[in-house]
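Pasting as-is:
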Amino acid sequence: MLGTIIGLIIIGLVAGFIARALVPGKQSMTVAQTILLGVVGSFVGGFLGRLLFHHGHGFIQTSSWIGSIIGSIIVLLIYLQVQKRQV
């Protein structure tokens, strides 16, 4: 259980950081927000991967990392659009 939580935090940090590096523009986010972005992005990427390809097992696979990064990019773009509308 603790290993899973630590794994989610590490994947979230890496995926969130890569997503923030790939999306142009300024994102004023803390480290905790970057981790949350990556964790939510991992769930979005995993959901989309299972929806499209009807499989997806395992924790540390190349496809799960790519899905986490793509999901994080999607979540970040949505976050930026919502933030832009509030200003």
